[in-house]
């Protein structure tokens, strides 16, 4: 059913005239690695020894992170899904830590004549790292361009930005992960493992305990968000396979000094402990990551796989949501939901699991780096825009 000739139906994306695909960024070649790591760790006091260690992970992959190509693939998939639905909305890509930078994306939005953009962050969960840090980056970069009004509401004086809510509990994200885990169980059987005895281990990025505590302002903590979708995916996988699936949540990629507590167990420690108890078969599902970027390629496919092999386990790593159709369709649904909210309409915010839809406009003090420590940094897309 196409539009009637002679009419120009209002875009369902209004008031938005652009979509910002907002990501982390990563190096494209060896010479990028150190400057990239300095961007990531600016002002965080991460010692050079740790930078060199992380740099090794990148050099081992030719100095190139897969993340940029994966974001380009997601951008193309979003454009195709928008075109399929007849929605005319340009997609602009920007990153916090590598080119195209946030400032490049803002300039591109301005060149397009965009007035109000909706940001889609490539992180499904709420915490400082997955939410507020992006909101702060937008504000700080605008400020650096002389385009943040810090006298009043702390608003942008150029393109206005809204943000799509955290989507870990959106049906599209959960379905795409469920499909990927089912494929993982098939791959385990093909590898000679026993799917009826396999443990499903969900994996996400560890964060400091202090960041976990501060994330509760977002309606449920970072770990609680993962546990809620983990339970749901395991239940759906069990229903599809016709037997109960035991599951647990593990963490990867911790950094920081050993004296600072981060979320545990580490995936390697968990595998070691479970192997000692007799567990032989494992499906690892990286629900904390939206694509197979460096954390997945190194921390899971390289490190955790080596641990499992050493322990004599049969292990497979399930896919990430990447450009899977239910995920991409869900992201466009979320964009349309956000647009309807911005138009002041009553919206049915779809969720699965036991948690509510997370806020589209973050609460004051939401997802700070640490409790009780206002960052003093302005952040867009929240009720505390002036910080
Ligand atoms: C929760 C979370 C996500 C998941 C959400 C999401 O997907 O966004 C994520 C994603 C990513 N993290 C990435 C890379 C890095 N993260 C670092 C450091 C840190 N991450 C943290 C948290 C997270 N990070 C934290 C609490 C730190 C400590 C320093 C700090 O408090 O900020 C460091 C510094 C060195 C180190 O300390 O390891 C690097 C190089 C890449 C790019 C990968 C690629 O290149 O393919 C991606 C997608
Ligand atoms: Fe990280």
Automatic annotation (TrEMBL):
<keyword id="KW-0350">Heme biosynthesis</keyword>
<feature type="binding site">
    <location>
        <position position="65"/>
    </location>
    <ligand>
        <name>Fe-coproporphyrin III</name>
    </ligand>
</feature>
<comment type="pathway">
    <text>Porphyrin-containing compound metabolism; protoheme biosynthesis.</text>
</comment>
<comment type="similarity">
    <text>Belongs to the ferrochelatase family.</text>
</comment>
<comment type="function">
    <text>Involved in coproporphyrin-dependent heme b biosynthesis. Catalyzes the insertion of ferrous iron into coproporphyrin III to form Fe-coproporphyrin III.</text>
</comment>
<keyword id="KW-0963">Cytoplasm</keyword>
<keyword id="KW-0456">Lyase</keyword>
<dbReference type="InterPro" id="IPR033644">
    <property type="entry name" value="Ferrochelatase_C"/>
</dbReference>
<keyword id="KW-0627">Porphyrin biosynthesis</keyword>
<dbReference type="InterPro" id="IPR001015">
    <property type="entry name" value="Ferrochelatase"/>
</dbReference>
<feature type="binding site">
    <location>
        <position position="205"/>
    </location>
    <ligand>
        <name>Fe(2+)</name>
    </ligand>
</feature>
<feature type="binding site">
    <location>
        <position position="134"/>
    </location>
    <ligand>
        <name>Fe-coproporphyrin III</name>
    </ligand>
</feature>
<dbReference type="InterPro" id="IPR033659">
    <property type="entry name" value="Ferrochelatase_N"/>
</dbReference>
<protein>
    <recommendedName>
        <fullName>Coproporphyrin III ferrochelatase</fullName>
        <ecNumber>4.99.1.9</ecNumber>
    </recommendedName>
</protein>
<keyword id="KW-0479">Metal-binding</keyword>
<keyword id="KW-0408">Iron</keyword>
<feature type="binding site">
    <location>
        <position position="295"/>
    </location>
    <ligand>
        <name>Fe(2+)</name>
    </ligand>
</feature>
<dbReference type="Pfam" id="PF00762">
    <property type="entry name" value="Ferrochelatase"/>
</dbReference>
